[in-house]
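Narrative progress, year one. The postdoctoral researcher (J.K.) led the effort to move from monomer predictions toward full complexes, under supervision of the PI. The following entry was the first complex the group processed end to end, covering 380 residues in total.
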Amino acid sequence: MKELEERILKDGHVIMPDILKVDSFLNHQIDVALFEKMGAEFKKRFANKQINKILTIESSGIGVAVMAARYFDYVPVVFVKKANSKILNDGVYHTKVHSFTKDNDYDAQVSKNYLSDQDHVLIIDDFLANGAAASGMIALCKQAGATVEGVGIVIEKGFQPGRQVLEAQGVQVESLAIIDHFANGQVVFQ
Amino acid sequence: MKELEERILKDGHVIMPDILKVDSFLNHQIDVALFEKMGAEFKKRFANKQINKILTIESSGIGVAVMAARYFDYVPVVFVKKANSKILNDGVYHTKVHSFTKDNDYDAQVSKNYLSDQDHVLIIDDFLANGAAASGMIALCKQAGATVEGVGIVIEKGFQPGRQVLEAQGVQVESLAIIDHFANGQVVFQ
């Protein structure tokens, strides 16, 4: 998505060796007009899929997911919650996810009320690197018997294994911008 | 807001003595069409204010804030982050907030890059009870020299002191639904 790539080049900051900060428009301050265009683009990428629910994970995925839902006939958005401790609760599906950014594990939880075998799910997240969060969401869908129709990502780090991890599970992955590598503190897209 | 009140009566669950669960449409699963109407209603309530930024706090405020921004000329949304430990960081404004729900304190943080004395801020949150989170956001605005133009709330517990706490600071408070009290496990609106 050309506008997103241009925005990353203009406002993103590369912190060596491989961190890209985009908090001026994506995950701290939000450019709502850009999010709307990203939502429309996700619809194009998954136009052939029958989707009745969008699943994301707090916090940075929520804004993108809500905007995308407008283009998928206002399907419900469900956001997975991150719990530090595993509270015993029969009412949730849960799975352990490793955060490489924070170098810790959290328990990803979703209420059994909001994910079921009737659901055809589009998973949306802001970043794809190792695929840990998206794999966690796929695991939650499997527990619920839901069908994963695809994974939509805003920014993919193409040099990390996330895409392979997800595609190996038979899932269509669509990223709006794919970073091939960083060169001299600059982003180079695929 | 009539549609919101009806939805609370239909899908909300009162857990005695004074907890209202609305996670089927507000803070776990999101009804995006309803959020859009809430955004339009916030614009009506603050139509006379010049607002150039919406401030909210992760996670449940983000969806509402993003939808509201569409009706305020797509102003940027900034979401305050909750940190468990106070990491020393010169780049953020921060303040301590007490969570009555979880009975703990967290450090509310916002980057100095995204809040300044040029900002006329609408604060948006999902719930108003004791006013702790909204007061924290007002404190962050004050640190930045930003002007708080108002606080927009989805559901206010009118029997708790939040409104008085905020109005004592000279801030206009607009809530889309105000709960007067609970009676026999049912919500009674003001």
